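User: what does the whole thing look like in 3D?
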Amino acid sequence: MRGLATLIVSRALNFQDLCDPSSACRHLLPQGEKGEEESIAENEADSMTTTSLPASMTSKTQAGAPAASADFTPRYWLFSLPAVLVIGAVIVFPWLFTLYMSGQDWKIGGGVEFVGLGNFAELMKDQRFIESMGHTAYFTVLAVVLPIVFGTAAALVFHREFPYRGLLRTIFVMPMMATPVAVALVWTMMFHPQLGVLNYLLSLVGIGPSGWVYEPSTVIPTLVMVEVWHWTPLVMLIVLGGLAGLPREPYESALIDGANDWHMFRHITLPLVWPFIMVAIVIRTIDALKAFDTIFVITQGGPGTASETLNIFLYLQAFQFYKIGYASAVVVIFFVIIIMLSLLLLYARQKSKWNA
Amino acid sequence: MTDSILKPTRRVLLAGGAAAIASPFVLRKAQAQGAFDWKKFSGQSIDVLLVKNPRSDLMQAAEKEFTELTGIKVSAEQVPEQQQRQKAVIEFASGKPSFDVSGISLHVQKRMAAKGKWFENLEPFIKNPSLTAPDFDFADFGAGPVAYARQADGALDTIPFFVDYWMVYYNKELFDAKGVAYPKTMDEMFTVAQKLHDPAKGVAGFVSRGLKNANVPVWTSLMLGQGMETTSPDGKLQTDTPEAIWAADLYRKLNKETGPVGQVGFNWNECQTTFMQGRAAMWLDGIGFATPLEDPTKSRIVGKVGYGVTPPGPKAHHAGMFADGMGISRGSSKKEAAWLYLQFMTNKKNQIAMLKAGAGAPGRSSAYLDTETIANSKFGKQYFDCLLASAKIARAGLPQIVPVTEFRDVFGVALTNAIGGADVAAELKKATETFAPVLAKSEQG
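Assistant: Here's the predicted 3D structure for the full assembly of 801 residues, as structure tokens:
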């Protein structure tokens, strides 16, 4: 039930976000140089054109084109029916059902009892729930900021011309292609405090062994490290796409005006690619919030409850303790958080558009 | 002679033909002497839900033989343990499970199965000679496992085909190097661990699970040394008694003072790796984890592993017991065919196969008397001695309640906190207070 709600939200948002920047790309494309990196932007632009295909199918009515958008005849509703049905079945119904369940006290195998807001009241008193919110915030902030910084830096590096750039870029992007669970299992082996390769490497440079994920104080930073390794390439790809579309002229005039590299980055590059970074931030935030597989496979929320994020807490309540009502209440809270955060980020992104 | 073969006389042909025709009859007769008709439900097909493990692999391998014998088609599915438990709970709660036979972990879902009326009582099947082959010999199943599988109301709703006893693996080489003997009491376990603990060499005196949830059986196994389980026979929590505190304190000392760094995040697999690499002198866990220890491609201590029975505690001598059972869904419409499957998969031959493959300790006693298997096994005599001795003193390792997972979670956190330095008595008291209402509620509904 967790998966459903969050997945749906994130899917919906991701989709929108992936399409949106491409419209920004289209503004940029004609001016930019045709590099390989544009293929990403172009792909997105392609998806835009494919999504707008149905419009060309109705081109018969193009004579009365201006009226077409206001055509709310029964035929119009008929065409929207499949989409409405699908959305109703896979988004609206589960969501309403979750909302309904959050007001019930139901443990699988027992009876259902209406408790109103009782589940929420209980959650507010639940120490582990409060702690898990803290862990989620801690994890999310680190797992968003670090990949954004490293990803942007990497994009700037790979944007330059140098030998074997294509090859190195491919290697850099590889972590992203790996299956999260497989990745998590390999990392777990490397983290082993006595036998893991990481502590061996530390010992080579004379540093004592670290507890990594086996130590409550280092577990979240360590998990973030895995997340950074895994998802920095994604940020890099997005920002690289943005960089590829930048116009040449501002740099030329800046050079004439005597600007140095830092000035050019700070006052030209950064503002121009900011919309892309914002997209990356939105995607990363949602991904980090719903991070589950890595944490579950590596620590299962441990040691103790030191890495128990909202998702892990939710999973425990719903699928280990079978407290469906209680878990639904967590989903509702989680949903509200995600929606608010997404709105905030979308608003910030709108603000950041230099070409808006 | 060759002539007679090439050009046989009529008499030779007739005789040979008669023998050829007669032989299947003779064989069938011999089987019929058991007066048991395996083919009764031929043509039916059953669905089976299994947990992913080597025992289920063996069962799937034996399916072909079963189908040939009975004409019953089997469609079995192996699901990883955690997901299998969820699937069982959800499907049984729906009242119409999609499977006719399911395996469960008795130490986790026994009480839940009874309350939810998951399984059919098997006793009428066992007693019915038209449904149970005479060589099935139910009495062969160990008294301990059978008592464990039996529900509070006396019904036997699963066959306990796999048992796991908790014992101590120890590294003989490390013991010999320091001239230390295997501990005779639980308290001595700690002093021995202290003597063998050598962090400078990367060797821990003792290793056991520290990860919350997984760590609870370690504590309960120690608590059995006080002759006490975590719940009383009438279902009251005994988790903040002086006995429970003693066990948790011993757990804390063993792990904190003589355990490896990071043990607080260890599940059985980390413990196993540490022990297999010769980095721990003792490891308290289930005997079912022995398989890779004697595998030279995985273990550095092949032939040096000692298998010790859990030492006696101050008041009693027990080995924590965990077991898997298999039962027939109450909602199934093919119960008889399902029973034939269950009967076949838990017969003597297949139980010995389990022991032979190193897939775990079977529930049948006769399997352990199969000297040929024991002699050919890569595990030494000590392993089998440990198994038999543990079987004799076995006692339930986890409380027989509905919310076992929540129990393990809540007390698991308390134990982890204790290793982290928190006060043991206070942690147990807090956990008991948190868990008591959950338990009370689970018995109401």
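In plain terms: Residues 54 and 74 of chain B are 18 Å apart (CA to CA). Chain B touches chain A through 37 residues (CB under 8 Å).
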